[in-house]
Every structure is written in structure tokens, then in C-alpha cells.
Amino acid sequence: MRIIPTAAILAVLALPVQAQQTRLYGPDGRSVGTIATDSAGSKRFYDARGRSVGTSSTDSQEVTTIYDGAGRRTGTITKGK
Q: What is the C-alpha end-to-end distance of the chain, expressed in Å?
């Protein structure tokens, strides 16, 4: 049996969690950007060149807040009941 050093295990646990990415395509089939979703459900939007153009996050009341690329709040979406 092989023993893995504790430092190696801690190094792996310290790695950032990878976001799930969804590529977006325009009507002509070309990529127009991506949406990256982290484990908490926050989303970051990127244009076709990979620049961040905005974010969104949803709270426990299911209200989604939208921010532009500079981090300014630009709107909200409230789930109807």
C-alpha cells in the first residue's frame, strides 16, 4: 500500500473549483461567448474574446441580480409564485 503525503492531499484540496462552462452560439453558428457557472450557482458571462461582460447571482429568495462587466447592478429577476 502506498501512503500519499499529507501536503500533497492539502495541495489538491486547495485548488480552485472549476466552473461549468456553456458555450453560446449565434444564428450563424459562430461562438458569441460563454457562461461559466460556479458551485454556488453564480454565473459569469464572457464575450467571444473571453472578456468578462457581466455576472449574475441568485439568493435564497430566488431573486437573481444582474451586474455589468464593471460590477454595477443593472437589474433583477424575481421568480413569480
A: 56
What mean pLDDT comes out for the span 31-43? 89
Residue with more model confidence, 5 or 54? 54
| Residue pair 56/65 in contact by the 8 Å Cβ criterion | yes
pTM > 0.70: yes or no: no
Q: Containing H/E element for 10?
A: helix 6-13
Q: Which parts of the chain are beta strand (E)?
A: 20-25, 31-37, 43-47, 52-58, 63-68, 73-78
Whether the CB-CB separation of 33 and 44 falls below 8 Å is answered with no
